[in-house]
Design a protein that fits this description.
It is built from 14 helices and 17 strands. The chain is an alpha/beta fold and 476 residues long. Strand 13 and strand 14 form a beta hairpin.
Length: 476
Amino acid sequence: MKCTGFESPLGMSRRSALAGFGGGLGSLALGSLLTEASSASSAPNYITGAGKAKRVIFLFQAGGPSQVELFDHKPRLTEEQGKELPDSVRMGQRLTGMSGNQASLPLVGSAYPFAQHGEAGTWMSDRLPYTAKIADDITVIKSMHTEAINHGPGVTFMQSGSQIAGRPSIGSWLSYGLGSMNENLPSFVVLVTKDKKGQPLVSRLWGSGFLPGKHDGVRFRPDKDAVLYLNNPEGLDRTSRRMMLDRLEELHHLQLAKSGDTELETRIAQYEMGFRMQSSIPDVTDLSSEPDHVFELYGEDARTPGTYAANCLMARRLAEKGVQFIQLYHQGWDHHGGIPGGIKKQCQETDQASAALVTDLKQRGLLDDTLVVWGGEFGRTNYCQGKFNPANFGRDHHPRCFSIWMAGGGVKGGLTHGETDDYSYNVVDGGVHIHDFHATIMHLLGIDHERLTYKYQGRHFRLTDVHGHVVKEILS
């Protein structure tokens, strides 16, 4: 999509900015100006200066993890197992087509026992033994809620603040608003667990939408070519490549002066970043320099490129290098059936490495300014999908309440925020909507979510649309 009516965060148009730089030095010079201005007295009006976080690592669990099996301890569900979901609890809430036509909606309790952990006594199931060890470092939010009831709109909403595809992802918004802390690496990197089945993940989920294309998330793959099309063609050395890019940039600037087309500026920036990444990517993606005790911390899976554990370790390395937003995707949480075995497998793949990441960051002095987020797009129903079988059951999608956790970056540790009813069906206290979640992340990064906007097709858009409140209760 082509942008119209663009205004930079400093209130200048692209054409004015380029002209002011003596013939147009392109997006590199402009990006440098924005970064410097953010720390100066003339900082953009959306910079609050109050943020404690410098970077975000979002451990996205695609498919909708069951809060009932993980964080939302509800003994009443076990006591009333097999009984019908009360109408007074459901209150006419819409269901998906997968369970909406069931003649019966029998309640079913957690497949696993719960216990309290840490000084604050945070409830967790026995499927999370490693996360239990960091209970005093995390805030568990049990009162998340969303309007989205199916995966496509749900994941899109969590990633972009809208159920409608095409809006900029949160990582792109932060890249646009904050610039980059390392000119040799993208400000927004995406890692996807390899060989996982589940709801499809598409590149628009980390796309820049109507923002300039240079703010797209860059996906790193677990092979010798971590970023596609980055290496030089056969027979072309680095010196020749540099000369070619210099001449190409001159041609782009000539065309840019005539047309004012911002896509040319994006193309210049992408070529330059690609050239620099030829040296920086091999260094940051090479895990061989990590000592054995680090692999023991994350688990032996961390030695296998592309696993969730390896991606968590990679996220720590990227955070150390100044990457501002690191998004991990791990599929497989869509348990319409087989929850007892399915949740067990998912936790075996993710629990140790998720906790290890928090521990590793803390040991290195990085947790205080790194925000770590764990969660999916919605929760699961408190009733059984399909025929009731307490030994092997499933749960449908549930948007009215679900659980996530956050750590570091200005968030309190050892806290549980919000509460659901006795059936884990409705939020009864401290509700946190997707827009509130995004507003809080931006606040922790020192951004006023109401002021960071982008003018597109005559309207000023923002990540939180016209909603969102910072969840002040979880701030340290």
